[in-house]
Write a structure and sequence with these properties.
The chain is of the alpha/beta class and about 525 residues long. The chain has 4 domains: about 160 residues, P-loop containing nucleotide triphosphate hydrolases (Rossmann fold), CATH 3.40.50.300; about 70 residues, no CATH class; about 170 residues, P-loop containing nucleotide triphosphate hydrolases (Rossmann fold, 3-Layer(aba) Sandwich), CATH 3.40.50.300; about 70 residues, no CATH class. Helix content is about 35%, strand content about 25%. The chain contains 18 helices and 22 strands. The strands form 5 sheets. It has a 6-stranded mixed β-sheet with strand order 6-7-8-3-9-10, sandwiched between helices. Strands 16-19-20-13-21-22 form a 6-stranded mixed β-sheet, sandwiched between helices. A hairpin with a 2-residue loop joins β9 and β10. The protein is globular.
Length: about 525
């Protein structure tokens, strides 16, 4: 394991491999970066932190040649020479690699072709590719990472974690000396994350400078040597990671103290002597794959958290309730009446809404505007005689944008241009437009910054206080403990524990999550 004190000493005695000084960037009159400085040293992991919209991605796009900074704005010095590459291919050839949060691989090609993409493949006299040499060259890179992947394998056959390894291998194939990792663990299991950290430590020992972007504090303190915090496009502070703590970093990112962040107080829900029925009751439910004989109820105004390890069956549960997966046995009751749910349309008609786990793949229409995304689920109410009433739709969308504090330039802005937190709020707004009785939330704050997370928690709490029954899945135990009124814990498709808010602890949740009773 790396000794941070030794790294600090070596960094202090080195010259930075790369310096960005006074970098500014403006888009359409809006300043997104203002005089930002950052230094990267060989063999260090540098955590770049900040809320979504703080300027992290723009800074890294300038570093990797995708964007140019404003004219006469600052300087970039690489290996002692001033540079300003105008093309990401130039940056890559000079040793600057990027591993994007959204993996950028071609699934229909082999690992070899993905790793060596952009290079000249060896050919014989007839012009045919020497595939044996191509696979051998790629296998050498994989072997240097201690990976057991076979270079001939199609990328489509790989898990997300394995694809992450291929992305890293691609960067190493052109001898990256600066490597940018943007939320590299967002879709990985704990075991896969440990494997990634081993690779990062190997790269560190080889002298690679790594920019590590993540919202997960535990990772930042486990893997990083130094940090830089951006807020509203400005550099707030940099320093050794050992000289700070999570609370301090959060306060730097959001500009206020942790005690000012949202904490759900006592719920209006009282379990005993309730004069009304549960909003939703699930009785002995099993699906066709993983969920086994689950029963629970949620009352008006209650937030029920579902915790468990990856693969416990939580997502499969809400997909069954929402009609995405087939219910093999059991029943669902809404306000005491048994309902038949064979599709999401049936679920929506019965007052059930689902904010899915992956907003980009399952929750958003990325080519459409903010207002179209918000009102897509209830579009019919804006159509009369086959014509959409755009004025009414625009007015309704503006109300949701205002009420949920969605930061968008206008309702007509493309949803793809919003930060992750604002995209998530737009997805929540869409389902609120259907006037649901039950709101199912699957990892509602995954991939959003601490400030947006606080706003989403506040929205969820206000919806519960207005009478909605909320089922929230989260893999972050502090989130489950902080927001939920009750907590169910799942293990291998079954509920293994139920905890009231006042008795719940991380230790008790983990006990049930690992199969304890």
């Amino acid at each position: 394991m790396l000794i941070k004190e030794n790294v600090k000493t070596s960094v202090d005695s080195m010259r930075p491999i790369l310096k960005m000084e006074g970098i500014s960037k403006t888009f359409s009159g809006t300043t997104v970066l203002k005089n930002v400085d950052i230094e990267l040293y060989p063999g260090e992991v540098h955590a770049l932190m900040g809320e979504n919209g703080a300027g992290k991605s723009t800074l890294m796009k300038i570093l990797s040649g995708i964007h140019l900074p404003d004219q006469e704005s600052g300087a970039i010095t690489y290996k002692g020479e001033r540079v300003m590459w105008k093309d990401p291919l130039i940056a890559r050839k000079l040793g600057v690699g990027v591993i994007h949060q959204e993996l950028n691989l071609s699934p229909n090609l082999s690992i070899s072709e993905n790793i060596l993409m952009g290079t000249v493949f060896p050919r014989n006299k007839l012009g045919m590719v020497k595939w044996k040499q191509v696979h051998s060259r790629a296998q050498e890179v994989l072997t240097s990472m201690d990976s057991d992947l076979k270079a001939e394998t199609l990328v489509s056959a790989l898990s997300v974690a394995q694809q992450q390894i291929v992305e890293i291998a691609r960067a190493l194939s052109y001898k990256a000396e600066v490597l940018i990792m943007d939320e590299p663990t967002a879709s990985l299991t704990d075991k896969e994350i440990d494997r990634l950290f081993t690779i990062i430590n190997d790269l560190r020992e080889q002298g690679v400078a790594i920019v590590y972007i993540s919202h997960r504090m535990e990772e930042i303190f486990k893997v990083s040597d130094r940090y830089t915090v951006l807020r509203d496009g400005e550099c707030i502070q940099s320093g050794p990671i050992m000289e700070t703590n999570p609370d301090h970093l959060v306060s730097l990112m959001v500009g206020r103290d942790l005690k000012d962040l949202f904490q759900r107080g006592a719920s209006q829900y009282v379990k005993t002597d309730m004069p009304y029925k549960p909003v939703i009751e699930v009785k002995n439910l099993s699906d066709s794959t993983f969920v086994k004989n689950l029963s629970f109820s949620i009352y008006p105004g209650e937030i029920v958290g579902f915790a468990g390890l990856i693969g416990a069956g939580r997502t499969e549960l809400v997909r069954s309730i929402f009609g995405v997966s087939e219910i093999q046995q059991g029943e669902v009751l809404i306000e005491g009446d048994k309902v038949s749910i064979k599709s999401p349309i049936d679920a929506i008609k019965n007052g059930i809404a689902l904010v899915p786990e992956s907003r980009k793949e399952q929750g958003l229409f990325l080519d459409m505007s903010v207002k179209e995304n918000i009102l897509m689920a209830d579009l019919q109410m804006f159509i009369k005689k086959g014509t959409i009433n755009w004025r009414k739709l625009d007015r309704e969308a503006r109300d949701y944008i205002k009420n949920l504090n969605i930061r968008a330039a206008s309702p007509d802005q493309a949803i793809s241009g919003l930060s992750g937190g604002n995209q998530q709020k737009a997805v929540i707004a869409r389902w609120l437009s259907t006037n649901p009785k039950v709101l199912l939330l699957d990892e509602p704050t995954r991939g959003v910054d601490i400030g947006a997370k606080t706003e989403i928690h506040k929205i969820i709490s206000e919806l519960a206080d207005a009478g909605l029954a909320v089922l929230m899945i989260s893999s972050e135990l502090p989130e489950v403990l902080g927001v939920s009124d009750r907590i169910f814990v799942m293990h291998e498709g079954r509920i293994t524990g139920e905890l009231e808010k006042k008795e719940a602890t991380q230790e008790k949740i983990m006990h049930y999550a690992t199969g304890g009773h």
